[in-house]
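Quick check before the chapter quiz. The format below is the same one you will see on the exam, so make sure you can read both the input and the output lines.
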Amino acid sequence: MTLSQRLTAPLLTVLLMICLPVSKPVWAQPANELAVELSPLVTRLLEDELLTEAQRREAMIFHGQWDGLGELNPKEELRLRVARYEVRNDGESVAKRISLADAGGPATQHDIALLARAAVLGGNPESCINAEIQAGGGASQIAFQRLKAQAYEDLGQYPKAIELLAPLREQAQKDIKAFTTAEDLTAAAEAIVMLAKLEGRPAADYHLAVQLLSKAHEEVDPLYWPAYVAEAEILFDKGNPQQAMEAVVQALSLNPKSSEAWYLLGSMRTRYFDFDLGNKALAELRAINKEHPLADTLAVEIALRQMDVDAAKAALGPALSRYPTHRQLLALSAAVSAMSYDEKATGEALIAFEKLAPGNPQAHFAVGQALSDERQYALAEPYFKQAIAMLPGWSQPQLALGAMYMQWGKLDEAAAQLQIASTLDPFHKEITNQLTLVQEMLGYETLQSGQFLIRYKPGIDEVLARDMTLHMNTMAQSFIARFAHDPPAVTQVDIMPDDQHFAVRITGMPDIWTIAACMGDVLAMTPPRPGPKRAYGAYNWLNVLGHEYAHVIHLSQTQNRVAHWFTEGAAVRMETTGWVWEQYTLLARCYNNNELFTYDNLNWGFIRPTQPHHRSLAYAQSAWIIQYIDEVHGWDKALAMLNLYRDGVSEKQTIQQVFGTDTETFMKGFLDWAGKQVAAWGMSTYGIEPKDATLKKLLQVEDLSAVDRAQLDQAIKDHPAEPDLLRIKAQIVLMGEDQQAAIEAIRQYQQARPVDPWSDRELARLAIKAGDAESALASLLTLDRIEGDAPEYAVELSRVYRGRKDYDRALHFAHRALLREPYNPTFRETAATIAVQMNNLEQAAFHVQSLELLEPDRAIHPKRLAVIYERLGQKEQAEAARKRADTLELLKDD
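Here is the expected output.
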């Protein structure tokens, strides 16, 4: 997306940001709006006079109301320790731990089950396997059976896990009424889901699991929050994030200290780039337990999703020292090594994981997912394939590989892979969405043009695809020269027919809307036209694709290791519009109020903005820094930075090596230069509230007719550095009849603040109103350049030059209008007419062909084509065009 579009439509971003509807579902609420309140049902339970004190305390522990417990007996302390995930150093066997007598008396069957659970949670599944409980001893045999199966899965001993789980599924299929408690129903549901994953079972098993969970919290025990957590896990696993989030919030209302619910919430939202909620969940887990293994896991997941390898390593080191055999942390350790491009360390991490859990695909999948997120598709592919080979029935790596092939542009491979995933999981929304789309896309038409392969759905979008062949290669050559790199692969451009198709193309889900995105060697975009399922409408498509093509070059040039701020800033600088007014105002206001990002915080503006304007500021400031590097240090320094990124040099080391200074000194130089820029823009006081009461009153005036001119003139003399006063004066003069005085007043303001397009808009309006379009040319040329999505200036320029019989320039600006609205038949008609006037019959034919696509029921277009083809000596094409015209005439007569 162009900068002007980002500034004026902040929900439309190149990043995959979720477009929030007006009534926000719970899964889309900002972190500060997500209030988790204890359910009144829990309050009534705890206040029930029929409960014994022991029952009340048990309920308080289960529902996370720990503050009022006071002194704990040993049994309560054990329950609370496991609830808090205080499971460090649980490597001792459960048998040894329960042999220790305490004031609470001998260990019960429930104690044994709790200690076995602690062993699994701490990464010691062997201890769980060695534990046994007796029927009727106060612990659920079904839950314990499922827990031991989890331990066997962690060890990679799938046949033993299946042996434990299969009877539970058979019992549920035979008679669901056999499970009478919410705990048993939930454990049976979890067992069925685990078994389906291990065996590649059909979706019917998941329906059975959901049925069990519904019975648990709707019929048996509405306060049993683990059933909601299990339900949320299934829903999210099946590509239904909204209902999953609702289930998680329901669980938290029943237990605000549920570690499982907070982790699931954080992990889900992190996957959708919602780092505010991810970090809120992380803070809640740390509040429960400073050394919480789920908090450690979530911290690494957040860092990996943000492509922050250093932060991931910082979180992982202490975590593994506490939980050295924790499977999920070890899998993430392999992913972090892969993200560091350390092949040796990645291999060693996978070997270490394999020793603990032979045949378990978790680590290979984590590595594949991390590399895929980093757009390292070729590197990720073998890890996904290995994960699939290790556990063919697990649909997640099947889906991830198919989705990656989509991102990679390998549509045939994507279709085949997603078909396999769909067979395993036919009701998974993301699989269904992507499979439907890729099957449709295999029927798309293609146009090959130099550096680009253009895909489009047959029909009206052929108009845009044909236009791309006129402009894209010229644009690409200028970019290649600028960055001194020619991507070896052909760039695929996918024109998706609407926003929902586009969203599925880039994310797998239809509710994340942007207008264009780069996925490595693949660019995807929505068409620049209004219509159903289109949120934005017309825009300058060449400007947008130019921005995205800059990313293609940078990713190829650096092996996908380019700093986020650099590639976005350089891409904005390559946009043909140049700076726009919204950018000047944003940068000036933030500079004047010391609100620009520091170097360390700049990337966070893209990844985790804390203010509504932060993402726009991150784009604008990054582009400003690139301009500073270019103008002060030379473009060769920018190219040197790209080379160091390619070699894996960190961002701060890159600054040190290229500029011979640290980032703080580098940014000081930038700020000194930026201050001079703001002064040259005439915006040194912009965004600063004036202390002078008279000045403040004048700047806030709404009724210009009430302004005292003498007072205004005196204020202008007293405050010569305040251009806004000159604009007020110009606006007042415009209200009168003296056009020349108005022009002079506007030019005075323009001289003081040359970057405000208001001056050129008013000057052009006055000139055209006076019938003097020639005088408007300079302003129209400026406006056509900076008003990226507005075609009217190009239309007027084309009309003026056509009146001069300067047909070359007239056609140039007709094409400029078509860059904004390629589907506009009036603009197309103008371009065709000008081409005929200058005897450029090939161009005329091109545009009339597009008109035939845009208005296929009008016989006039093939008639005109027949005439043009005759003049070009193309007899066969002329005859075919005449036949099409005759057919349309007959249909019209009928």
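If your answer matched, good. The first strand starts at residue 445 and ends at 449.
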